[in-house]
Amino acid sequence: xxxxxxxxxxSIFTLxxxxxxxxxxxxxxxxxxxxxxxxxxxxxxxxxxxxIKPTTxxxxxxxxxxxxxxxxxxxxxxEIPKFLDYPVAFASQAPFSNWDALHEEACEEAAMIxxxxxxxxxxxxxxxxxxxxxNLVKWEEENxxxxxxxxxxxxxxxxxxxxxxxxxxxxxxxxxxxxxxxxGQLIIVPAAxxxxxxxxxxxxxxxYHMLVIRGYDDNKGEFITNDPGTxxxxxxxxxxxxxxxxxxxxxxxxxxxxxxxxxxxxxxxxVIIVNE
Length: 276
Known about the structure:
alpha+beta, Cathepsin B, Chain A, 7-stranded antiparallel beta sheet, 15% strand, globular
């Protein structure tokens, strides 16, 4: 009985000892695990990470405005269209509203520039008009032209300075102007400015003026013009007979000592036909 009792106690002691060793081993194993921090990155991020390069913004210049191409109307069955309007670009003779002595007299230059830009398929902006006027006035001064130029002188300038086709005609009628327009040409008109009655002119308006006829509207009996004498001159309309009556060329002889309205109205009837 004593031996059995002894063996039982020994067995219990061995079991407890093994259990304690197992717990110690487990405890040691757990203590060997690395301590996880909140800022620890996954093992996959241990690779060298290239710094993010800032994105470079590439600036692109805006595309230039495409100039409008001249259009020749299509006449079917010899039927003349009742409406015609060429898309001639517009800028006033004072493109930045600087109505000083130079710009007040720049209607001839502005009218020529608009017609030329159309036929040469070149764009037009206030800046281009301003530079064009300054360059042309300088050239005119160097070549003996006066402040006001006649229809014949403007025709010469169109040929020699701008290298476009131009001629004058004394056939000043609604029918002939429409005929020239239908042939794909533009008309530059010298006029007694105060006879035009344009409400957008300052005061009575200029004694002498030039503008471009770009189309017509038979339905309303009106010429469609680009009138550089006002910022509202793009596509400005004049009644047929109103514009025809106002057409008078500049006369240097009559203008000696100053031009009066009555003298201006004695100027000959003439228009300038402009082509490529």
